[in-house]
Write a structure and sequence with these properties.
Radius of gyration: 15 Å
CATH superfamily: 5'-nuclease
CATH class: Alpha Beta
Strand content: 5-15%
Helix content: 40-55%
Number of helices: 7
Number of domains: 1
Order of helices and strands: EHHEHHEHHEHE
CATH topology: Rossmann fold
Strand order of the largest sheet: 3-2-1-4-5
Amino acid sequence: MPTERLNVYWDANAFIGYIAGEPDKVAACTEVVKAAMREKIMIFSSAIIHVEVLHLGRKLGKEIPPEDREKIRRFFDEPFVRVITADRWICRDAQEWFWKNPALGWKDAIHIATVMKKEIPVFHTYDPDLLQYSGSFGEPPVKICKPGLEIGPLFNPNP
């Protein structure tokens, strides 16, 4: 009987950690990508990730050279990465998150609204402002944690 993939949402900092090979992130992110390549995990993110990754990279001084731009685009087209359109319904839900949580940024509000709308059980991020929301929304509660495969006793990515 085929096992079901675990759906995991990635914030921009997880993509940057993997793509840029950040020493404190690349091992954990690579572990998740390898599990996704083995069809154990499906990585989701909002369509805003296409630009957010570039913005975050620039902000961190990791400007993407022209010769690597197509490589980035191709990564988002991998069969184990699903990009979710930030449609008007997700954005309306994001408005609610943004209004009710004054410390929450607009991009993070879109990410949370996307996770909720698509019922994704795990949200990977390195953002301490988002990590504090772990278990505070969703039914069952969404786990917000740093990328890695230690996300629950029922999930074993290595058969």
